[in-house]
Amino acid sequence: MMNTPISPTPTSPTAPTTPTVPPPEAGGETDLATLLAEPAPRAWYRRPVLWGGAFLLLSGVAGLWYWQVERAANAKPSYITQVVARGNLTLTVTANGTIQPTRSINIGSELSGTVLKVNVDVNDRIKKGQVLVVLDTAKLRDQILRSTAAVAAAQAKVAQTVATVKEARATLTRFEEVARLSGGKVPSKTELDSGRATLERATADEASARAGVSEAQATLSTDQINLSKASIVAPTDGVVLTRSVEPGNAVAASLQAVTLFTIAEDLTRLRLWVYVDEADVGSVKLGQEATFTVSAYPTRQFPAHITRVGFGSTITDNVVTYLTYLDVGNADLSLRPGMTATATITATQRKDVLLVPNTALRFSPTSAAAGAGAKKGIGVSLLPRMPSSITRKSAAAGASMAAARQVWVLRDGQAVSVAVTPGISDDRMTEITGGDLQAGMLVITDQKTSLEK
What we know:
- By secondary structure, the protein is of the alpha+beta class.
- It folds into four domains: 78-87 and 353-374 and 395-452, conserved putative lor/sdh protein from methanococcus maripaludis s2 fold (Beta Barrel); 93-102 and 261-351, Efflux pump adaptor protein, beta barrel domain (Elongation Factor Tu (Ef-tu), domain 3), CATH 2.40.30.170; 106-135 and 231-259, CATH 2.40.50.100; 137-229.
- 29% of the residues lie in helices and 35% in strands.
- It has helices at residues 32-36, 48-75, 138-181, 189-229, 358-362, 370-374, 378-382; strands spanning 78-83, 85-101, 104-109, 113-118, 125-126, 131-135, 231-233, 238-243, 250-251, 258-264, 269-277, 289-294, 297-316, 319-329, 340-357, 405-411, 414-425, 429-435, 442-448.
- The strands form four sheets. It has a six-stranded antiparallel barrel with strand order 2-11-14-13-12-15. A four-stranded antiparallel sheet has the order 3-10-8-5, with no helix packed on it.
- A hairpin with a 2-residue loop joins strand 12 and strand 13.
- The longest helix has 44 residues, at 138-181.
- The chain is rod-shaped.
């Protein structure tokens, strides 16, 4: 069967793609899109600009959401913690002072005169009774001679008055005998009274003469003592620390005794004088052990123990301190009087006690609910909340003891307050004597900010 081609007609809908311009006489309007051969416009949901804008908007929302999440994460507090453990704690008191001899003696002269001889020098060991200094005794010996002569004169005066008394007594006895024999006619009453007065005067002169003898003997004794003191001797065994006299020096002791030597009785036993601050004196007791260092041996610790805590205060630059004595052994003579020392006194010791750092007792979180708020959703956190009518009570507020305080521990990422009762402290760690704190807990010592992360 053969296909016969069909010729298209002008009015057929299957006309060729080349448009046929109708004759002018038809008078119909021609579609501009048909005339220009332009395609039909796309649907709104197929436009790329719309989808591009939607993508940018979603990207902005996602970026904002991520920024808010990061901001909330950065706002969540971060804590520095330390594990609570048991250990030993020692409370110490530090004080400064100087080393002094246990007993030091200032040797001087009670006499005025010229130094004739000096027998010892600094650092010399001396024995009790040893002659240290000799003064010129020429004047003292002359004084003894004068005193001896005065004693002899007083004794002669006594002998003279004794004779006078005997004479007056004999005369009075004769008068009385004559009066008895004469029946009181002779001698007269006046003569008898005169004889009695003469005897009384002679007796008084005898007593005065005997007193003069005692005075002269006392003067002689004083001069002899002064002569003995012209040779200055050591009152005890010891070591000469200072010497301030030379042969030929004039000693003037008219106002006060002049110090010629300073002697330490025993340098193998020294004493450390320290001044304890008024804030620490309550912790310092007799018998407590201590250690100290001196500049001459900076790495060596010398032992000592307290033998006296003064009740009288010393005020220096408006600082109140109390003088405390610590006895020190110095068998090797490495320590010397006058050295400056820094003593550390062991006031109190605690063994196997619960310890927390002092920073934990001073710590307080800046936002106690920051961790809980970070766990909530962003939408929930932006919603307004009704004010709470319940006031949160701290755990430490209900502690029974007046000294109770609180620390903050980390539980499930949150800061929780725990009541504690602190004991002694060494400025770094503090003893916990009561409360709810247990060993192994993470106590918070500090809080990091977002800038520190």
